[in-house]
Structure formats: structure tokens, C-alpha cells
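Notes, p. 3: input format for complexes.
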Amino acid sequence: PTVFLNGEFLPHDQARVSVMDRGFLFGDGVYEVIPAYGGHLFRLQPHLQRLDNSLQAVRIPNPYTEPQWQGILEELVGENAGTDQSVYLQVTRGVMERRDHAFPADLKPTVFAMSNPIPEPDPALAEHGITAISLDDIRWQSCHIKAITLLPNVLLRQQAVEAGAAEAILLRDGEATEGAASNLFIVRDGLLITPPKGPLLLPGITRDLVIELAARHGIPYREGAISEAELRGADEVWLTSSTKEIMPVTTLDGVPVGDGRPGPLYRQMHGIYREYKQAVREG
Ligand code: PLP
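Output follows (283 residues plus pyridoxal-5'-phosphate):
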């Protein structure tokens, strides 16, 4: 498959990055993951806006304008427009002559992007849901930045997988914030609740879309903190992400959520989401 690296499209096995790249040495960079359905990049503008926010937050200049980004990503997707894909892009601060934590202002960012096929979500997921465990959030205080420095997320997800779960739901100071690679919603008495944006969670594009779809379809929702007790007492728990879409959590820490099956509000939102996605796919 073809990848994009620093202005060039080339076969992935010919793409080379310096060992002195700050992404390699320090994890000094940011990234995005954007699905494409039927060749159409899904929610492209909000993804590019979040990329720009991440870059600004870590003081890496944005190497491209939005139309330039769009051109690059569409070219990568265009190769396999017939299959659903996930585009990964990352921008690191660039290459230095010698290793030094502090960075000069004039580095040229390293830009990498690739596109890979993704399967449709497994229908068993909508039918049975997933298992999650809760874990203490061991990450930093700037989780709103989509940084490539993912070691805590990697360790948390691995711990979940080794416990037989699909995802970890993270707790900090008595509140549930998000998953290791997903945002969190609960349903209580028909009300959809998700934590407000802030430095302790990633502002998910899927999260925003779910809220937008709830508003459009008259589903009551609120952005508010979710305490650990509220998480454990919820009628429904969902996790959202661009590639996994909406996942109903039916077991949390070995205990059934609600009646242990995907709930009625999940089934409604899942249908609404699928329709929205299909409309995008058909252009
Ligand atoms: N939270 C974290 C920590 C993530 O890594 C992700 C994405 O993988 C999300 C939330 C979901 O974000 P999005 O819906 O934009 O994919």
C-alpha cells in the first residue's frame, strides 16, 4: 500500500524516518484517525480542527492548510475507495542533530499518513455488547491533546485485554472520564449523559456526533460529570470512537450493566448512527 511521507506518496516499505526524529526519541508529536466510507472522509472538518488544536497546544506549526490536508488524505483513500478505511496521520516536531529535550523553533515537522481497510462493526457487538473493566487513570493532565505518546493508554488497554475485557473505563478522583481509546456515555432514567470537555479527556469526534444526533432526534442529553457510583448504577453504558462507533458495555467489572443486554436507547442511537453513516457513504 501507498503511504504519504513529507510531501511524497510512496510504497510503505520504502518510507523511511530518521532515528533522530523527535517522534521516535520523545513521542513528540500528535495524530488523528479518520474513517472513510465509500471514499468519503467522515467528519473531516472537525478532525482537521482537532488536529490544529493539538498542534497549537504542543507548539508544532501546522504544515498544511485544510484544503491541502484534504487533498493528501483523499489521494490516500482514493486508492481503495471501494472499501471502508481508516486514515491514520501523524505530525512530529521533526528531526534534530542530537538528542535534547528542548526544541528549536525552526524544525521542519515530519508528516506521515496511511490508509487501511476497516471491517464493518461485528453485528454481535450490537446484539451482546462488550465487557469493560474500570481502572485508575494513570495518564497526564492534558488528555485533550491527541498526542502520539500513548504508553499509558497502551498499558491500560493491555490490562483490560488480559482481564478478558474489550476496553478500560478510566476513573480519576472518583469520576469516570472516558475509555483508554474511547469516550464514555451513560443512560439514567432515559437521560443520556457524557462528561463535559476539558483537559482530562479527548474531545471525541464521535462523542460530538452522538450529541448532535441526540439533539436532532429529540433524545434528552446532558454534559455532566459521571461519578463512579453513577457509572456502576447506570441503566446503559456506551463507549464511542471513530473506528468502533458506538459500543454498548453490557458487563462492567464482572457485573451486568442494567439487565446485561444492550439497552433501548443504545438500539435507537445505533440505528440513527447507521443511517447517518450510510448517507455519508452514498455521498
Ligand atoms: N478518547 C481517547 C483517549 C481516544 O484515543 C479516542 C480515539 O481513539 C477517543 C476518545 C474517541 O475519539 P474519536 O471519536 O474522535 O475517535
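The pocket of pyridoxal-5'-phosphate is lined by residues 33, 178, 181-183, 202, 204-207, 240-242 (CB under 6 Å).
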